[in-house]
Amino acid sequence: MTVIETVPAVSEDSKGSSLPRYLALKTGGALISLALVVVLGFFAFRVLPADPAINMTRGRQVDPGEVERLRSQMGLDQPLIVQFGHFVRDLFTGDLGSSYVYRRPVSDLIMEHLGPTLLLTGTAALISVVLGLWLGQKAAWRRGSWFDKINTGLALMFWSVPTFWLGLILLLVFGGGLHWFPTGGMSTAASHDTGFAYALDVAWHLVLPVTTMVAVVYAQYLMVMRASVLEEMSADYLTTARAKGLREDLVRTRHAVPNALLPTVTLIFLTIGLLIGGAVTVETVFSWPGLGYLTYKGLSAPVLPLLQGTFVVFSAVVIVMNFVADLVYRVLDPRLKSA
Predict the structure, then answer these.
(1) For the chain, is the Cβ count within 10 Å smaller at the N or the C terminus?
(2) pLDDT digits (tens, 9 = 90+) for 275-285
(3) Nearest Cα residue to 268 out of 170, 156, 122, 155
């Protein structure tokens, strides 16, 4: 008697169930990371040696009772676990506390400075992605040529340069020396321009800080894209495409580049998140009125509620960008859909 073994077919329901499970895993991981950020954001800044109450009264003669009264108003006299409970409770309501230096809610300060940061980092990210991916695939396709050597060499050089140092050099040469561009701020002081004239003024102030960020970041995209295209160049499907009579430009753009983009997707989203967090140095060098410059001024006090708020925002952006990268990668790579 012949025994016929049957292999159970994979149902469509079981295939579709992988997507909810994938989303649940990634969402759970993101939420755990956010929870750790909240814990770290609270306790890390409590380690700072400076006392906020003493900083508020610095330069004035006050009795110790006044200092203790200020500490009591800010809740610093309570146990750490009680302060942490209040911090988490307020965080769920969008209350990040109040800055005793600016005399304003921290959430208002963050929203006020968020726009300039998004403008700066968004412009730099867009230019970096386009420039890096275009130069990377061109350099790989012309491997060993002068175009490849020059662009790869420049990318490695800029990649190794500290951001703040490059910003200072550009500021001294093109701002203070040649006077081609403004040396700081987002717009000309005492200017009453509106509309298109104001947009041009802001764009003129953007040139140096954006150039600083692009010079350091685009190199990552170039090197990763170059390596990905080089890996694809020996694939059989490219030989098949050439056998069909396609020109080299079409073989590159229609076949090699789309497949080489997969490894760069995660890098792009992670870099965008890190750009926002890493804007502290660039915004400080160019006095750009964004979240990075606000964080720098908060560190000089130090202002605990402001530092906690900006830290949570920066970290949350990185986590969210990482989560989005995982989702986009699953869409672009069909192999992950069946995983």
Answers:
(1) N
(2) 776 678 888 88
(3) 122
Domain contains 188: yes
What's the CA gap between 139 and 294, in Å, rounded? Answer: 39
**Neighbour tally for 41: CB within 10 Å:** 21
Neighbours of 27 (CB within 10 A): 12
The tokens for 81 are: 């676990």
Contact 309, 294 (CB under 8 A): no
Cβ contact 266:329 at 8 Å: yes
What CA–CA distance (Å, rounded) separates 41 from 81?
14
- Has residue 322 been placed in a domain? yes
Task: Yes or no: say if 109 and 306 are a contact pair by the CB < 8 Å rule.
Answer: yes
Separation between Cα atoms, residue 241 and residue 299, nearest integer Å: 57
* Residue pair 308/97 in contact by the 8 Å Cβ criterion: yes
| Alpha helices by DSSP H, the chain | 12-46, 52-56, 64-73, 80-92, 106-141, 146-160, 163-170, 195-232, 236-243, 248-251, 257-260, 262-277, 279-285, 291-300, 304-332, 334-337
Whether 192 is covered by a domain: the verdict is: yes
Residue 57 tokens read as 């009264």
Q: How many CB atoms lie within 10 A of CB 34?
A: 15
Assigned domain for 31 exists: no
Longest dimension (CA), the chain: 103
Please give the tally of structural domains in the chain.
1
Q: What are the tens digits of pLDDT across the range 23-58?
A: 888 888 889 988 898 888 787 777 665 666 666 656
**pTM of this prediction?**
0.76
CA distance between the termini of the chain: 38
- Write the CATH number for 186: 1.10.3720.10
Cβ burial of 333 (10 Å; 0-12, 13-18, 19+) is: middle
For 133, the domain range is 107-337
